[in-house]
Amino acid sequence: MLKILKYSFFDLMRSRWSYIYFLFYLSLGFILLFLNQDVSKAVITLLNIILVLTPLIGTLFGIMYYYNSREFTALLLAQPIKRSNIFLGQFLGISLSLSLSLVLGLGIPFLAYGIFQSTEIFDFFTLLLIGTMLTFIFVALAFNLALIFDDKIKGFGIAILTWLFFAVIYDGIFLILMLVFDDYPLDNFALGATIFNPIDLSRILIILKLDISALLGYTGAVFQNFFGTSFGMIFSFGLLLLWVVIPLIMIVVKSRKKDF
Description:
260 residues; 84% helix; mainly alpha
């Protein structure tokens, strides 16, 4: 698995798209710090970009890498190698390379700015951690979809629809339900609905960390009472880890039953 991980990692790192992804965040970090001169404002702006772009890039890279390396994967499957090692190695290689581009792209400008002397250092590292976890989550979801759909066009379309659902559609449905049933106590519903969307869960975590939960109104007060506590923060990070672990288990199960 480590050999496959190493091959997938360096194979993707040699791709020009990885350099574009790295340069985008590098340029974005320098521009935001130049315009704002305030780490807290830069982190808030980066939050909105990372929550949309990181899942999209993870989904696209994951689905494209699987389909483009299908012949190579079939060759590996003919060798005495466990199926789980092959797919987990590829998954980790893609996820680590994308995460490295994100961390280095944003880390270099903030290090140059002097983030270690700033009081927002923990907020910045929380943002990087959330971006990394979202990368792992959506690459895993993309692999699952690729294992389900053999047709490349169908798999690619379903993957984009999955990202669109979590990034946009889910929030729309959530807001409609909140408006329709606003006469009922919706505290538990709001908390429960957030758990089933890793993007919303990540957004709430960083907003509460930055202490701007007032922007969320009444819902923000509910989230502050739960997620704002130490137990709530640990619990929410545990949920994000589950969003990584469960798709990984599904990859292992599907790869054993998949007819290649």
